[in-house]
Sequence to fold (1020 residues):
Amino acid sequence: MERRSFDTRSGEETIGGRGFVTRPPEERVGAGAFVTRHGDETVGADTFVTRPQDELVRPGTFVGRHQQARRLREALRQGRSLTVVQGEAGAGKSRLVDEVLGGTEFAEWTHVRGACPGGVDPVPLGSVADALARLPYRPDFPDRLPQVTGVVGLLVPELADLLPRPPAASADPEVRRGLLPRAVGALLASLGDTVLVLEEVHHADPATLELIRHLAATMPARLRLVFTEDTAPGLPVLGLRLPRGARFEEIGVRRWTPEETAQFVRSWLATHRSVRTDERQELAALVHELSAGLPGAAGALLEEVGERLRAGAAEGERPGAVLAAVRDTGVPARLRRESAARSAPLTEDGRRIVEAAAVLERPVPLRILAEVAEVAAGRARAAVDACLRHSVLRAEGPYPAFRNPLDREAALARIPGPRLARLSLRAARALHRDGEGPLPLTDLARLYTAAGQVRDGLRCLVAAADRAAATGDYATATRLYAQAVADDPRAGGRVRTAAKLARTAQLARAGEQVVAAVRTVLDEDDPPPQLRGEIRLHLSVVLRNQSGGALDSLDEVARAIPDLEASDPQTAARAMAVAAIPSLQGWPVARHQDWLERGDALAATVTDPVARAAIAANRATALMLLGDPRAWTAAEALRGPAGSPMEAAHHARGWTNLAHASSALGYGARAVAFLDRAADGLADTSSPYLEGLGQTARLVLAWHGGRWHELHAAADRTARLYQEIPDLTAEATLVRGLTALHVLGDVPRARHDLAEAARTTRYDTGFILTASAAALARVHLEAGRPGQACDAVEEVLHRLERTGGWVWAAEVLPVAVEALHGRDQTARAHRLVSTFAAGIEGRDAPAARTALTVCRAMLAEAAGRPDEALDLLTDAEARWQLLGRPLDAARAAEARGRCLFGLRGKTAVADIQEVVEVYRRLGARWDVARCQRLLRRHDIVTTHRRGRLGYGDQLSPREQEVARLVVQGRANRDIAESLVLSTRTVEHHVARIMRKLNAASRTDITLAGRQDDGREPRRR
Fold:
């Protein structure tokens, strides 16, 4: 049946037929979301329900319903009109009406509002009587009314003294019943602009329906009717006839989208400042998952969470407290009561169907639902229709399901324990017998466990994890194995499952809980030597890649090798390949090389394809990280076809590791090729860790390659996405810090991110610690603080000397030499460069060799050999360009230009200006400012000084930059660092800005900037 939204201009229009018609289940729209035709526009609406006294869920927050509110307002302004607001229970129909009628535009109108109670035997006209009973409290109640309105006093005793004496004929019940609709209409017509709101009209009794028909057909000129009705399948549809000129509007309210739920959560979080941004995203996703986008459920959930947080105010500000409270709250009391009320009218068959659906959790065909509920098929169909009609269940495609997880939990909580166990066992057996598609092993595990058959539940749980791992879904496999380890009461079972858990966890996002579970098994369950060694091996990889530290990881694998050598030489060879992978935070590289050679000696004994793939990936990675020329041949061993998803995952892991390692060595183009191979290998698997590893590699390659457009934003997204994997977060945070410094010129933010990256990394293989230290040292050097620059690189230099990993020193050695020379430690700089040269001798590390050339140029310049320095820097610039590193090439050119200043003075200006243009093309704002400061020191920026006088009362470009940073709340010292100026120069700029803007203080500059939406602050 179609409804239309229109203005009636001539004759009479029949809308939706007469009286009520039944909407059969097969005509339901979507899954509870109503679509209404308005022109050709599909419209939906929603909002949330909340209590005014709740301080956290603010009544003023109105999410995602502005278009629907506009349509309702327009209908009310039109004059006499009928508006039907439709949506499923809890969708926010009443909230939409509240929002509109609560506005000042309609504050002087008469609002008459009631709700049809439903139930088995509702009081005739009860909702209308309740609404009209509020009229005596109006101070402007009319004193001269038509006599027929006196009949209303017989229905509403509260009005009897305010109304005329009823006609004598109304003493007859039949006459009174016939007069009452006319009497109500006359009364409402006498009240001026009036809105009659009747909610839940699908529950209206026959007498109320008759009154509604009369009011719609004879609608007074200043009366507006607003009805709300549910759209559950099988509910009656209101059909009415309107007079000429009356407007009809039908407004559908739908569930919230995830974005609208997130908007609501953000408004609720206004009082929870301790919640991190990443937690807010997780919280919004969790609230949307639990409420399924129903605003009433979301509002009730956060309302109860707010009460819990207020009860423990000190805990409420603890990081993670809000998320924990949402997870622990369960079903809010209000939703529990509403669920019980909706279920109350159901028959015994209906209640059995609801119990079966709650136990099964997943949508299933009707035959399975009927079997679990022990209801005959014909009766089950009728019971399901009743459940849909009363909004206890909804249609999930062809199958019935709960409207949201909270409703299911409420229904599950009403089932007594013994009955729940029987239903769970019956459900498990029914699913086992179903035979359609693969067994739902995870559901079977849950059901058998709920039935008390723990061993069967664990068997299904481990089988589900095995299936997920076999198909490459390592995240799911890890989660299920971890659950099995936690639930298994048998030590032997925990040991066997922990071995699988440790194996898959290295390819998923393994948090601290996974590591703790595996370590508990190792410490308490006394695994046999072979399994103990295997578990330690896999745990070492997890610690290395995701949640531990380099030495923790290496110590774990060192403990594993003796057990494995005695019991499983193949796995021992694999462990040695893991121990061979070096780190700036690990052992000396000689020890890693020793493990590499020992592993090579055992390689011939390895026959398992997965083990061979893992060893090949680790061996190629270790060789590449060491700058060993054999790495390229080792990489080719990964090209062979993979016989299983696990082999393919190890190949992809190898390619991704090779991309990181070759990028650090200076082979950017080859790194891109490795990443492309890794992406092909990951096409049919799900490994969040490897996907993140690939993303961070591309961030680093984009940084080195000068592809900086939106790189800061991309790095920020990646850092947030992989926050629980330290090295991925650290690498993304490093790139975010580097772009904050060079691209945004935001020195404070850059210093924070660079330091955070260094603190976060666990197994740095040559880029994070060195690049972070180098960038921080450059900031100090430009600010004239060589001592602090030396301090910034000292720890990294110590690590390089301790490990001998000089192939990773390309980022930090040139700036370290400059800092040491600036602090009059040139002798140490010479020793450092000599050690560096010896450390990369025979290594395939072009970036390190080019950095060595830069270091030698600096030492030559310091020794008074400028011509030699110029030749070396020219050579270095050309090499950096060949390696595809434009920023490094520009730095070499800048160093050459600075050297030329010492030889030729101002005749070298063109060289520096050329470097400035290179930096500009890159988007390196901070580097441009540094070069411009160099030119100013030599009194060269004369054109800029002449041009400044032409700006008059307008801010110059430099003053605009300074003003922008003042608006951000930066201190003069921070502004000086960001723009590479002296603090005194910034003070002069601020003074000129204040004069031009007629500002009395920095606060006035800030206000002027904010009033102008971030553009140049205007004169006050």
Q: What stands out?
A: The first helix runs from residue 66 to 78. Residues 1-60, 942-950 have pLDDT under 50 and may be disordered. The two ends are 62 Å apart (CA to CA).
